[in-house]
Predict the 3D structure of the following.
Amino acid sequence: MFRKKRKGNGIAPLTSNFKQIFKYQPNNLLQKIRILSDEEDFKTIKKLLKILTEYISLKEASENLLDSKYDFKNRNSNFMNIFHQICRTFGIEIAYSDFNKEFNINEQNLILDTWNHSRIITNLQNINEENILKPVSNINNYYIFPLDIVLCSGGNHSQLSGMIQKKGISHISRVADLSCLYPYIRFDGEKFIDIHNPNNFWDVESELELFSGVFFEIGRILKKHPSYFDLNLLEKLG
């Protein structure tokens, strides 16, 4: 999924798959977010993040509904694997902490992994106006700091139903802090690059991996603005 490259000139040829992924120009968005953050227009930044996370969640759900041979290698649950792999290279670990917070289903930038098309339909039937989504034991979400996104690892299909009808309450149980990675890597719009040795880099080979890089650099911007984040969260992270 995620291949490390070592090239003396730091250049790797793009495959046709890469060219398809790189029809996007993420650096344009990152520059706009830098401007918005300097203006402290945090509401607009949150709306932009919402567009991206809902696209990721709904794209996977749509593909799963339409394709009985859905490629599980591209599941959204692989989002954090990218960062764990890079951490192993540098001998560092992402810090996880307990953090309990309820939220309106449309309040957070939620990435869902709706891997089962039958469960998508069943939950759309069962989570409805008479049975609105509420926090239950099978729902498990964790907040990724400072990316300001929430990744679901349990209760994906029920939360999708809540997202679609724009009603319901969910909860966060943990926080993952990716701050440890910023001194080591950066994302240039096409690949992750070793800051201290630019000849070492990691190509992205899927749309999800590209989005992970975009979110990572958004997090770098947001980290400079503590007022963007929940005060209780910052206190928890110390």
User: Anything to note?
Assistant: Residues 28-237 form one domain.
